Structures are given as C-alpha cells and as structure tokens.
Amino acid sequence: MPVHVNTYDGGIDRDSSKNKYQKNCYYKMKNFRLITFEELSHGAVTSAKGNEIISISGATNADDIIIGHCSIRNYLVVWSTNCHNTTGGRGTIWRTDLSVAAPSWTKVYESATMMLTTKYPIYTEAIGYYESDTVIKVYWTDNHNMIRFIDILSTGPASVDLLDICPDVDFEVPT
C-alpha cells in the first residue's frame, strides 16, 4: 500500500487546484494548529482542545445551530439558524460581552427572510471592525448570499435587504 506523507512546511495554499497539491501544503486547516518550539519548527499538527457546548440563554428557538462566529475586542458574535435546506430561512445574530464577570447573550437581529442555512455556514468568513465605542460593525458572507454587515451595538435595519453591503438602489433623473 502506498504511503502518503505530509509535512505542511509549505503552509496554506488556496491558489492551487485541489487536484494538484504539493505534499508540503494544506488547503484549509480547521481546529488544528502547527506545533513549533522556538527555532525548531517541525511542521507537525495537533488538534485544538477545549471545545465545549455552549447554550445561548434567552434563545427562543432551542433547535438553533450556530453556523458562524466572530470575535472583536471584548465581543463574541454568533450566527444561528434552524434551517437545513439549501434555500435558507430564519437567521439570528447574537452578541455577548466577554469582559464582564457573567456574560449574557443579546439578540442583535433576527429575521425569517435572512436566508441562513446550515448548508452554507459562515465559519471564518466573518470580520469585525471596531469604529468607535458606539459603532462596531461585523461583515460576513456564507458564500450563498451577498456580503452583509451590521452594527452589533445598534437595533438593526428594518429590512434584511439593508444588511447587504451593496443594497439595491433605484435612481431617478432629477427634474
């Protein structure tokens, strides 16, 4: 039986075709980290330990599954849904302040037409941007919907369409 050896010393490579990978590269590493000891980097990997089940107190839908998260300064933001089909359905965005002794969850936004689904998780496609003490924006995509954003400290938009980074705009000719 042929032996397949990977050293991973070539780092991450998302540009090459998955069919033409070098033995020393990897495409996506999730819940793993490289082991290094000062100058003695030997390229071995280990699994990240310490995962635990969390529950969002105050959640109205107990069957929600967390499909993405993002941390920005003292805040942890998570996206959840109970939709398992490919079209998408209700989605909820939560935040918690990790700098307090007893963090509690706050619902940032919820909509039945958010079109989130477990088939298209957000995973690492979320970025937080701290603008000021009153404006903290999070940008994300699930690679199914348009790139979206929300200010996690505000009440949220009236329509899901306003979450899109490039919402539909109707122009009129001035008279």
Global structural class: mainly beta
> Into which percent range does the helicity of residues fall?
under 10%
Strand content: 35-45%
Walk across the major sheet and give the strand order.
3-4-5-6
Low-pLDDT runs: none
Round the Cα radius of gyration to an integer and report it: 20 Å
Number of helical segments?
0
Distance between the termini: 77 Å
pLDDT averaged residue by residue: 81
Let me know the number of strands: 9
Written as H for each helix and E for each strand, in order along the chain, the element string is: EEEEEEEEE
The description of the largest β-sheet is:
4 strands, antiparallel
Shape: globular
Number of domains: 2
Question: Could you explain how this protein is built, in words?
Answer:
The chain has 175 residues and is an all-beta fold. The chain folds into 2 domains: 1-49, no CATH class; 65-163. It is 0% helix and 37% strand. The chain has strands spanning 32-37, 40-47, 65-72, 75-81, 89-97, 105-116, 126-130, 136-140, 148-151. The termini are far apart.
Strand and helix map with partners:
Blueprint: E1 32-37, E2 40-47, E3 65-72, E4 75-81, E5 89-97, E6 105-116, E7 126-130, E8 136-140, E9 148-151
Antiparallel strand pairs: 1-2, 3-4, 4-5, 5-6, 7-8, 8-9
Features:
mainly beta; 9 strands; single chain; four-stranded antiparallel beta sheet; three-stranded antiparallel beta sheet
